[in-house]
Specification:
The protein is of the alpha+beta class. The protein contains 31 helices and 45 strands.
């Protein structure tokens, strides 16, 4: 029997060959395609679409066939399973059928579709749907193998396919299973947009994926002498997506399609077709991706009137405040602008140019056109010079940052480097060069290898600047090359570097610094070349310490191997420049503790290096150069953050020559360099030299005065060298830098001088304010448009997109008196009155979309997060600089003001072009608690979390209150964290609300008096009483020996004698009153006293409630003593007698070597609500202590005291113990910073001073 079956299979195999179509036959199939978006748990909303039709295939020649589609139906689904069903959309079906009614041709040979032809007017979207049908005929059959794999072209691109063929002996049909690996395609039908500046992190992808897809086809094939005929076919594609790790819960896309053979007949007659053009092969084609914004759908016919009307509406609605109901319309304008022609764009400019408000909105929205039209528009503006330098600067900056990066657009952008207007203003010219470099960088991300012609203008600019010795142009060209990150620019950059240039040139330090940093992005693209150069710079001991440190920093951007780190470590052991050694060692320390995936191997190498170098460099203080690296990463979220800061110094200068700080964000396999700031102080550094006369290092008033005395000599600075330089980088790209020269400082000093007259710019500004000036600022900005597109088996594109748009509005009106007549100094000798009202706010909208997005319909999931923030104001002020007196009057709050809020929800969405104003949006979670569907295999019960909270703190004195409210709904599974925790609804807000007052209030009055003043003896007596009470409190929480106590009692006695000899003088007095013309004011009065002693800094604060029948006061006494002790004593209630609390902290030495920090909080009486809070906190202490690795001792301590001690038990170990009333957690851990920090008591004292005062 087995032998008979084998013979049958062999016979069938002999008849089975490639899938074929008979050119003399007509085949009619039924086709159905369904795509559905859901979660991998039950009881959540879903969205999907279904397409059904008949497909007739007729032979034209041996290798050319005709496809006709008929009986097309289109249905939509949005809602909950078993509660909602698919609904027909006849209008959209009619629109699609209108294009499909025209026939398609395709070439078909050996089971493969090679070319598809259609009428020119057929859209790419419809052709892609046809590709989804024809994909069923893209199958490779090997008659000699039953299991095989091969790489072949399909709708997803050039991907690996695995086949299994099984024969059915009853029907003599063959079942063919094809599994396509769409994750690792060599040439994949996918597209990224807006992510060029986000560096790919392959090591992060190894820890987890955020997107995972599977594709499977099953064919039933009837073998014949002519070849195999597909009688039925089924395709299934499943994709799992999460903003985090797919292991923590996912959204799911399921695309299914079926093809069923209805009939086969002889072709009756030839079919006549009109002219056709090639639409490409079976691989999915992307088109109009920038126009098809996934979070909205609108009719794009006749876009100019719609855009004009929306711009006018937005300008009017958001002139003096933000209308949050209109901010979504900004995205609509972006989409309309992208379909407007160049001629129409010029026409709109002429319409808006004369209106300052409309002009500003038009320019800010036009930057999102992203194609050649915006370059042509800006070129016209630069030629006619009808933009101000500020308008040109901002518009060009954002436009080029968001521009597409095709070779044609890069070539077009070069014209701005040659235009005279670009060079007419320093900041505009800087922006043109830096933005072009950024464009080249993004171009090279998508086009590899990147042609040198793209970066050639910047190379020529650098060469010319070096030839003419133009140092400003050298720095600018190097910064442009740094933004471009093109490997071909290394040879040019080397010409500016000391010790590696073929022809050495003597260049200033800031030029060399720019040259080293110009390699920061090349370090990723050509790490070996950068390693060679930076290693050479680092090892040259005759170079400045700053350059060697920068070279070391860039060297580690290349992620050096263990061998390179070992080489560096060996040379550091022989390093004599402690600034270089300190910088390198501290940087290695940071990497040794790194947890981010990109530093995985570097962390291992660095930890070994630190162990070797620690005995020699582990105790270097903060006097030397430092580099700090701190990061965090979570595998469940696939998310992390990193922060780096650098301080570069040299032995010849007191001040650092350069300070830099930057942050990075790690998210789903990419690294985003968020913000970087840097400052160079070349001129100021030389002004201070190697020491500051009179500077002791404790940063007291005398130290600040010594620094000020040096700064007064700024006229000695060199004229040809920048005094101060600053730069900023976003997403790794430098977008702004400035050099502050001696001349700039002179102009500022002159303009602000009290003797300045009418020629001063400040004089003109004050004159405008006297007339009643107003100022408006609005700025819509699409900060993020990051998109990922991938083909599906249906020929529909699945998209993952993130959009972040903001609208900033600031408006202000102000009037100032008195008028100036002679010079600005009049303002300092008279009482200034100011009346102003205005608004400052920003509305932020953030969307995440996952679903199908075409020009005809959209379906999938969409999350929307809106965060508006608003600060309106209206007040009058009186300022008397001579008397140091300041007053503010605010009107009574009469209406609710929402300061900030957060509104967040996730929806199943469905839109179609036939009903663009009526999208279907269903909140992901059901409105009620009912369970709509249960998965039979679901064993876990979901947790529903629905907290609601509303709390207000109101003052019946001032008639105002502050309310916080939140309303959240979540349904999550513990083991599916983190995705499900973020799904659901959230609404949070913070509001200022009017409150009922005890007495009528006209205004709220604030007054600050910092002038000399004497207070009556009642205050004197209160201070004496406060000092005595503080002395008693000190005894209660004594931390030191009896000898120390007697010494401190001596201080208190001498202080009391000092207070008795003179009436205390307040440092300042602050009043906050509710005012009414017919009644006495009510509110609070605070006075601050400063009573220093020889060995202590003492301060007292007395707050009194002002009003009828009230004696509430709060008395605070603080002291920081020279022998490393700080304490604070606070009493409050009736005459400061109801409640009492004391805090004391001290730094001491154990055995004259080990510093110890001890602190205690003691209370004798506190309010009941504070006691209840303390009890609640104490209940959490054991769990938190266990979580952080503390050992616990259950012991009875003082019930009214909490104590803590931190002891440096060794050079790199700290012991910590905290004593609560009933438990005492303690632990030991390795120090995270340099050991010298732990052994320097002054560090502890600085911390204490900050915390106590």
């Amino acid at each position: 029997m087995k032998g008979l079956l084998l013979c049958c299979l062999v016979a069938l195999a002999n008849h089975l060959s490639d899938i074929t179509l008979n050119p003399k036959k007509t085949y009619e199939y039924k086709y159905e395609g369904v795509v559905d978006f859901r979660l991998d748990r039950a009881n959540f909303a879903e969205s999907g679409v279904k397409i059904t039709c008949k497909a007739k295939i007729t032979g034209v020649s041996d290798q050319v066939f005709l496809l006709q589609v008929s009986d097309l139906d289109f249905a939509e689904y949005n809602g909950f399973p078993e509660k909602n069903d698919y609904e027909a959309s006849p209008k959209l079906a009619k629109r699609i059928a209108a294009q499909l009614v025209k026939p398609f041709m395709f070439e078909y040979t050996n089971g493969h579709v090679s070319d598809i032809l259609a009428s020119a007017e057929i859209s790419t979207t419809v052709v892609n749907i046809v590709r989804g049908i024809l994909e069923f005929f893209q199958v490779t059959v090997k008659t000699t193998q039953h299991i095989y794999e091969l790489e072949e072209i399909g709708i997803h691109g050039k991907c690996q396919s695995n086949y299994a063929i099984e024969g059915d002996t009853e029907t003599n049909y063959w079942n063919i299973t094809q599994v396509v690996d769409v994750t690792n395609c060599r040439e994949k039908a996918e597209m990224y947009s807006g992510m060029a500046n986000a560096v790919e992190d392959k090591l992060s992808r190894e820890r987890g994926k955020s997107v995972f897809s599977t594709v499977r086809y099953v064919y039933t094939v009837k073998p014949s002498a002519e070849g195999g005929l597909i009688t039925a076919a089924h395709g299934l594609e499943q994709q799992y997506f999460s903003p985090f790790n797919v292991k923590g819960g996912t959204f799911k896309m399921q695309a299914m399609k079926e093809l069923t053979l209805l009939s086969v007949s002889d072709t009756a007659s030839a079919i006549t077709t009109g002219p056709m053009e090639s639409k490409g092969n079976i691989v999915y084609k992307f088109a109009d991706a920038d126009v098809n914004i996934p979070i909205l759908m609108q009719n794009l016919d006749n876009p100019v009137p719609k855009a004009v009307e929306l711009i006018k509406t937005l300008a009017e609605a958001n002139e003096n405040s933000i209308d949050n109901s209109t901010t979504d319309d900004i995205i609509k304008v972006y989409q309309l602008m992208r379909v407007i022609s160049s001629e129409e764009l010029e026409s709109m400019w002429k319409q808006f140019a004369d209106s300052p408000v409309h002009r500003r909105w038009f320019l800010d929205l036009s930057v999102e056109i992203v194609d050649a039209k915006i370059l042509k528009f800006l070129e016209n503006r630069f030629q006619t010079r009808d933009l101000t330098p500020t308008e040109a600067w901002h518009t060009f900056l954002v436009a080029l940052e968001h521009l597409q990066t095709t070779p044609e657009l890069v070539e077009m952008a070069k014209v701005f480097l040659r235009m005279p207007y670009s060079k007419s203003h320093t900041y505009l010219w800087n922006t043109v060069v830096l933005s072009y470099g950024s464009l080249v960088y993004r171009h090279c991300e998508y086009y590899t290898p990147c042609p040198v012609t793209a970066v050639q203008p910047l190379l020529d600019m650098a060469t010319d600047a070096l030839r003419t010795n133009n140092k400003e142009e050298m720095v600018l060209a190097l910064k442009g090359l740094g933004n471009a990150g093109h490997p071909s620019s290394i040879k040019t950059i080397m010409r500016f570097l000391p010790g590696v240039a073929a022809t050495p040139v003597d260049l200033p330090l800031h030029v060399q610094s720019a040259a080293v940093q110009a390699m920061r992005l090349i370090a990723v693209r050509d790490p070996h070349s950068v390693q060679d150069i930076t290693m050479s710079l680092f090892l040259q001991k005759d170079l400045p310490a700053e350059i060697r440190s920068l070279a070391f920093m860039v060297l580690f951007d290349t992620k050096p191997s263990m061998a390179v780190v070992s080489t560096v470590t060996t040379h550091l052991m022989e390093e004599t420049d402690l600034h270089v050694a300190s910088f390198a060692y501290s940087y290695l320390q940071g990497f040794a503790r790194s947890r981010t995936p990109d530093n995985h191997f570097l962390s291992i190498a660095s930890s070994v290096a630190v162990k070797i170098l620690s005995p020699k460099f582990g105790r270097l203080s903060y006097y030397y150069s430092k580099a700090k690296h701190i990061d965090w990463f979570d595998d469940d979220f696939l998310t992390g953050i990193a922060s780096e800061s650098f301080m570069l110094k040299s032995a010849n200068n007191t001040l650092p020559s350069e300070i830099m700080a930057k942050g990075k964000f790690h998210m789903i396999g990419r690294i985003i360099q968020m913000l970087e700031l840097g400052v160079r102080v070349d001129g100021i550094k030389e002004l201070f030299g190697s020491s500051i006369p009179g500077f002791k290092g404790d940063y007291s008033f005398n130290d600040l005065q010594a620094i000020f005395n040096v700064l007064q000599n700024w006229e000695k600075l060199q004229d040809d060298k920048p005094v101060l330089s600053a730069y900023s980088r976003v997403l790794g790209q430098e977008w702004f830098f400035t050099d502050i020269s001696k001349e700039t400082i002179r102009n500022i000093v002159t303009a602000l001088s009290p003797s300045a007259g009418k020629a001063s710019l400040l004089w003109a500004a004050i004159e405008n304010m006297q007339k009643g000036s107003s100022w408006y600022y609005t700025r819509p900005l699409l900060t993020l448009e990051a998109r990922y597109f991938q083909a599906t088996t249906l020929g529909l594109p699945v998209e993952i997109s993130k959009y972040y748009n903001s609208l900033t509005v600031i408006s202000a009106k102000a009037t100032i008196n008195p008028p100036l007549t002679e010079h600005l100094g009049q303002l300092f000798n008279s009482e200034i009155s100011l009346e102003t009202d205005g608004f400052a706010g920003v509305s932020k909208d953030y969307w995440v979309f996952y679903g199908i997005n075409t020009d005809l319909f959209q379906c999938g999931f969409e999350s929307k997060n809106k965060v508006p923030t608003a600060v309106p104001w209206k007040f009058t002020a009186k300022i008397n600089v001579a008397e140091k007196k300041f007053e503010l009057d605010f009107p009574l709050c009469k209406e609710e003001i929402e300061l900030t809020s957060l509104r967040y929800d996730v929806y199943a969405v469905l839109r179609n072009i036939e009903e663009p104003t009526s999208p279907k949006k269903t909140s992901l979670m059901p409105a009620s608690e009912e369970v709509i569907r249960r998965d039979p295999i679901e064993m876990l019960k979901p947790n529903t979390w629905y907290p609601f909270y509303n709390v207000c703190a109101e003052s019946n004195i001032y008639g105002v209150g502050l309310c916080a409210e939140y309303n959240i709904k979540r349904q999550y599974y513990n083991e599916e964290y983190p995705l499900y925790y973020f799904l659901g609804y959230a609404n949070m807000s913070l509001k200022i609300v009017p409150a009922q007052t005890v007495k009528p209030v006209d205004k709220i009055h604030f007054e600050l008096d910092a002038g000399p003043s004497r207070h009556p003896m009642s205050a004197h007596q209160l201070l004496q009483t406060l000092r005595k009470l503080s002395k008693e409190a000190t005894k209660r929480i004594n931390l030191t020996s009896d000898i120390d106590l007697r010494k401190r009692e001596s201080h208190h006695r001498s202080h009391s004698m000092l207070m008795e000899a003179s009436t205390p003088e307040a440092v300042f007095n602050f009043k906050a009153f509710a005012m009414n013309e017919n009644q006495k004011p009510e509110g609070y009065d605070a006075a601050m006293y400063y009573t220093p002693e020889a060995n202590a800094q003492n301060a007292q604060l007395i707050v009194s409630q002002v009003g009828v029948n009230t004696n509430w006061k709060m008395c605070l006494d603080t002291s920081v003593e020279a022998d490393a002790e700080a304490k604070a004593h606070v009493r409050w209630g009736a005459e400061c007698q109801s409640y009492d609390m004391s805090v004391k902290a001290a730094v001491a030495q154990i055995n004259d070597s080990k510093p110890v920090l001890e602190a205690k909080v003691h209370w004798t009486m506190i309010p009941e609500y504070m006691a209840e809070i303390c009890k609640r906190v104490e209940r959490y202490i054991p769990g938190v202590a266990f979580l952080y690795g503390f050992d616990q001792e259950h012991e009875k301590n003082d019930k009214q005291e909490v104590a803590a001690s931190v002891v440096t038990s060794s050079a790199d170990t700290i012991d910590v113990k905290v004593q609560f009333p009933e438990v005492s957690p303690e632990t030991s851990f390795a120090a995270a910073e340099s050991p010298n920090v732990l052994t320097d008591p002054s560090i502890y004292m600085d911390v204490l001073s900050f915390l106590v005062l």
